[in-house]
Amino acid sequence: MTTPGEFVALLGPSGCGKTTLLNAVAGFVQPTAGQLIVDGERVARPGADRGMVFQQHSLFPWKTVLGNVEFGLKMRGVGKSERTSRARDYLNLVGLSGFERAYPGELSGGMQQRVGIARALVNRPRVLLMDEPFGALDAQTRLTMQELLLGVWREVRTTVLFVTHDIDEALFLADRVAVMTARPGQIRDLVTMKLGRPRAAEVIATPEFMALKARVLAQVREEGARTLAGSRR
User: Which has the least CB within 10 A, 60, 64, 67, 68?
Assistant: First the structure.
């Protein structure tokens, strides 16, 4: 569904299977039929080639920021000097240089998610999976994080599969937006975002953006109505 280095967002009604699809790509769950292939290889289990950023930061509260980012490299047997250097590089990339010795409980929600992004990217995954990573943030922090994510993505150019309920977020971030149907979830539409790069927040006020939003909103509302109708049967 994606090409290397592409940013794809998944939109759809609650319960359609967005997070399940993400978990299957991550290797956390197995498909009930068929096979799931990433870069020509069957997904059988979690792997360092696929990084995951969750809605809640899921950081180890007893580890420092640096310790959290280093953890995956340590589990893979990477030496202390190399893993510390790489962890510091990615913390600098997400704007957290100087916070290496802080603990997650001392950080704001946005900063915690930045640590989560650094922790996922430090393994240099081919695919970065993001499950509503900014859903719990306030509107201003969310926009800041969206812009930061685009800046980080321009640097690392890894493939991103991003789940969200926010239409504006999906359209602003992605190269393509996959709109899913109500259960059982399928891809209803694949919308190409011809808005150019790099993108500034002001793009959401352009006629081109508004036209794409109207198209996607109509589909999401229709699928949401089907979900609601099905729950009443």
Answer: 60
